[in-house]
Amino acid sequence: MGKSFNSQVVVVLCAAWVLGLLAALVPYRWGGIALGGVALAGLALALAGLALRLPLLRRWGLVWWVWLLAGVIALLAGFYFQWRTPQPGSQDISRKAPEFDVVVTGKALNLPRLNSSGKRRFFLEAQQMELGEAPYTRAERVTGKLYVTVAPDQAEGITPGRKVSIKGDVYLPVTAAFQGGFDFKNYLAQNDAFAGMRGEEVYFTDPTGQGSWGFWRLRQKIVDVHTQALGALRGPLVSAMVVGARVVDLDGNLRTAFTRAGLAHTIAASGFHVSLLLGTVLALTNRLGLRTQMLAGLGALGLFVMLAGFEAGVARASLMGAVGLWGLVQTGEGDVTGKRQPLHLLLLVAAVLLLYNPNWIGNLGFQFSFLATLGLMLLATPIAQSLTFLPPALAELIAVPTAAYLWTLPLQLYSFGLINTYAILLNAVAAPLITVLTLGGMVTAVVGLVLFPAGVWAAKLLAYPLDFLLAIVTWTNQLPFNSLAAGKITAGQMVLVYVLLGLVCSGWDWWRRRWGWVALFGVAMILMPLLYNRMTQLEFTVLDTGRIPVMVIENRGKVGVINAGDEKTVKFTLLPFLQLQGVNQIDLGVAMPGVSNEGWANLSAVLPVRQLYGELPDPKPPKITPQPLSALQDVVLGQVNLTLTQTQPSLLRMTAGNESLVWLPESRFEQQDALVKQGVLPAHVLWWSGGTLGNRLLQTLRPYGAIASNFRVKKGDLGRLKRLQIPTFVTGQAGAVQWRPGRGFSGGRQESAG
What we know:
Distance between the termini: 70 Å
Number of helices: 25
Strand order of the largest sheet: 17-18-19-20-21-22-23-26
Structural class: alpha+beta
CATH class of the largest domain: Alpha Beta
Number of domains: 5
CATH topology of the largest domain: Metallo-beta-lactamase, Chain A
Helix content: 40-55%
CATH architecture of the largest domain: 4-Layer Sandwich
Radius of gyration: 29 Å
Oligomer: single chain
Shape: globular
CATH superfamily of the largest domain: Ribonuclease Z/Hydroxyacylglutathione hydrolase-like
Number of strands: 26
Largest sheet: 8 strands, mixed
């Protein structure tokens, strides 16, 4: 009775802490108090009242004061989150940003790693900033962390603890370009940084310095062992399976391939690695005493944490493993992998970690790790027991990835709108190979740290299973609908699905017996709103892509893209947006002249493009042959009609019902006046590059709104637009702007001339 009492109380109180921190992420506040926390406190108060009347709650040990305490904890969690949220100090370098052509001196905090743009990135502890024209006339003391990117050749010699001076531009990070997109500002804030720097040149104040000693040296030696044995491409992949891709320079294409295939967890230091490591250590020390086994396991865990870094997923998995080892010594039996540990243990670990760093609650890595472990605890055994027609080993191979997949899928749909269609099957098939490679990588890493040549020789034996795994991943990614864009679900849908999962996994037989109907209802709650939105949607979205004008047209399941931009635009803005919208095919593409359109080759390599109009400058052709732009006459995309006018310069007119939007290319006053003389027709919305606009053209077009694809518009042009009472949206300042015919604009902040 006492044990059950303690377990139930731990679950409720720890869940209140975790949920209270989650509620603090909700933007709605009242007097600085998170309304989500207030709602949780109110719910706990109601449950406290029910506990006085329901004998069932009292039998569980959940008396009224437990619920009351849970409400207080949920409310306090919001205040604690605000108190612990990093803020820039008075002398933080972000207070000086933006600054151009300056020199920042400080201490490197980590080894430079490759980013997705091919540059090296690292954090710098800023100490001094030199400003003014060279030779710099003013030096100011600064503090804080700075996110720095430099060319690969400039990063040579930068090691943790080494003092460096970097010349370049300091800037402020931006938020997501569209709802659900990558929030660079939030990413830096989670790392206690509030400014970035585009470095051009790096100078060392100590030319012979080597930086401070640290576990990064051992980590680098492990990478060197695998790289020398398996090559610059495959070697870091094995190292990532040992210490995680976060601290290893893994090729971007390989990282993307594993993510698309649903194997991202294998290259992220997580519970899988801890389970494998502890299982091996316990097997090797099986003949020794339990306390010796625990010490050996804790030693291996400590080394793993030092090498992989104390980040959210590593911390959660390692703490779970440590508690499992302690339980092994206390009881003389147990499963340190965490699969059979009770729910209260996971919640206790999560609460302790979030007490240490409450900002981890918004970290996707922490959230996925927690949910995957929860899925293993609640679903792995029931799924394996239901597969009685399979051998036990095969049933477990299927049950483990299925349980983790089901509990992480709602968060994946909410965050990315993606479904890894073959992930469960691939994880089951690849599990033996991944186990061999991870365990082999650990063994060769240890051997290499002691005797480098022996480690290199042993690591060469991993080439065969590694090639086999890469072949499977490549083949899977070539299958149709491998990475299916289903579309982003709402937070309410995600919460509803998790409630249904929790009910099915609970001890209530009524819900468990009806799991099929519950699953059907959950799928319907996800699919029906997505399908309804796709079939009724009519909107034009101008993305925030700097000076490159990019638009996405969505109309009743049909998708058109006007301009793709360059490779960077496709990779970081266009593709993520299409993915969140559930787009798996582009029905119509248009490449306008005078606009960067090299990215069509990259876009068509991921999504099929059925029709493409325009001339492409990229020597690397897309997978479809484009038609001449002049052939773009009365082309239909659902209810939208697209026509390239015969004027000089040509305009792209998009008509939906009784309203139209016109793209105006960069043009001078005299060219705009010529358009007026040629009899250009009025338009409801004007889309242009942000250049100068003439009064005569504006008075002829008479738009009720204007969208500029640029960082800013000149005050004179904004003044003319304001005098004509034309609301104006500038993507570089307002973010992505959406126009819905008949319903107006949304998603952007209107600019003013003042």
